[in-house]
Specification:
The complex is a heterodimer.
Chain A (H helix, E strand, L loop, with lengths): L1 E4 L4 E5 L9 H16 L5 E7 L2 E6 L1 H6 L7 H14 L11 E7 L8 H8 L3 H10 L1 E7 L6 E4 L14 E4 L3 E5 L2 E5 L3 E3 L2 E5 L20 E7 L1 H8 L1
Parallel strand pairs in A: 5-13
Antiparallel strand pairs in A: 1-2, 2-4, 3-4, 6-7, 6-13, 7-10, 8-11, 9-10, 9-12
Helix pairs in contact in A: 4-5
Chain B lengths: L1 E7 L2 E5 L19 H10 L8 E5 L3 E5 L3 E9 L2 E3 L2 E2 L5 E4 L4 E4 L4 E9 L33 E3 L5 H13 L8 H4 L6 E7 L8 H9 L2 E3 L7 E5 L14 E2 L4 E3 L7 E3 L6 E2 L3 E5 L4 H4 L7 E6 L2 H25 L2
Parallel strand pairs in B: 12-20
Antiparallel strand pairs in B: 1-4, 1-11, 2-3, 3-10, 4-9, 5-8, 5-10, 6-7, 6-9, 12-19, 13-14, 13-20, 14-17, 15-18, 16-17, 16-19
The chains are: A alpha+beta, B alpha+beta.
Amino acid sequence: MEITPLGDSALVVRVRDISADPDDESLRAVLDALERIKSAQIPGLLELAPAYTTIGVFFDPLQVTSAGADPVAVFDWMVEQIHKAVSRKMKSAKRTPRLIKIPVCYDPEFALDLNEVARHAGLSAKEVIDLHHAAEYRINCVGFTPGFPFLAGLPKKLATPRHVTPRKEIPAGSVAIGGAQTGIYPIKSPGGWNIVGRTPLRLFRPEKEPPSLLRPGDRVRFLSITRSEFEHLEQ
Amino acid sequence: MTVKILSAGFLTSVQDLGRLGFRESGVSAGGALDQHGLRVANLLVGNDEADAGLEITLGGFCVRFEDERLVSWCGGDFDVYIGATALPSGHFALVRAGEEVIVNKPRIGCRAWIAISGGIDVPIVLGSRSTDLRAGFGGFNGRALRDRDTVPLGENSARAKGWIDNLHSEKIARVSASHDWVSTAKVDSTLRVVRGSDWNRFGAATHRVLTSELFNVSPDSDRMGARLEGPELKRIEDGDLVSEAVAPGTIQVPPSGKPIVLLGDCQTIGGYPKIAHVITIDLPIAAQLRPGDRMRFREVSLGEAYRLLAERNHDLEQFRVGLQLHAP
């Protein structure tokens, strides 16, 4: 486990070897470390940002100093606390991953890049849709914009490079493919991924805690829905 | 009670000290880009340090009051008036019912923070009153202020009431905050940085360029980040990186070689190499970078960053105590 400073008020814990597609065991180890750091009540710790095999730890150096750290050695003190937290004797919670079903409408009006993905894969549009919603995915990371899930498990044939020039505006709910990953844009935002459909589900709900519908480790399946089902669900 | 926005200017939003605890859901902390400045302005008007104020970008702002309030501000080199009376940064004054506070275009710098006694009383969303402009929630209806908006204020604190009574004769209080804290815009400013985890993906020549040459602030800069133009920062080794946490102050280098200094509204994770980080104490200076400005970086040690932060905190503690002693 390697820990490096991220400026003077945050650090990054590399729980496992850096990978954009860690195996199940590695991701479990990361989520386990996340829980341990969260429950250790480390003084001055403000928030955490897990991503793939790493965890960003944000802290207030002044609170850390008040808790007894030498002001010039705040980072070393935090490193020690994190090592202690992660190696603590503690039952790792047996986590059965949640399976979340996400309805997706692959209607051509929503699926702006479906033809491009099909051309790239040498498949028909229908074959792309069938492959995309037949697979089971795992969330590796939530971030970039509020509630944006990065999903592993995309059938290899569907991997499609990002657009060289990102779109200025992608509609909320767009389901897209970026390289070997698939993801969903929860809010209207710029982006370079290939859009293959749209979900009527709200993935980011600021009135709820946690505001993100999806969490790292969750399993996801896409359910193909018709345009009229989409409009019905959207209401 | 409320205030009426007569002119919202280029971009004005409600901000407090930020939204903590939801980075796991992809929510950045946001908040005033100069948190220290907002704290100081809040203290001056008798508010809680974490109360919400207004972040004003490039001036052109005017607001009318409907009751008696204390007002203070900090930030760039702006002219701020209460009616015809100039209010210098880091001072506070009484504003009467019907009076207007005007913030003109800055000579130097980009942003100002106004604290009004009682604070801006918008609903708390996910633990904060800050506006998340990108995701469209929090603050005033999840958006920047517009002309003719009516913005709710909280109650004046006991301390604010005491001062309001006291200022009926002299208007501007004689108590003020340190000039360095409340006037943060500089010509050719220098931001101090510590090394990032990808420092060694760049060669010694690039390190020298980063820490010695002038960069220009690009027009597509915003609350997410200040984009820089000028000398290109070249990596010595390629290869894709996997996205991981980034923070306000992180200096990312995309393939173009043009660095981006991330600010409060930055995304929670990023996949570009992190060559360095602006230290926390210099983020208020970064918040003043305006398109067309020139700026440079200077490297300091992590220990130095912490020493500077502790020193400022010590001074802030004294300032808090001093304000108590001055209370009417």
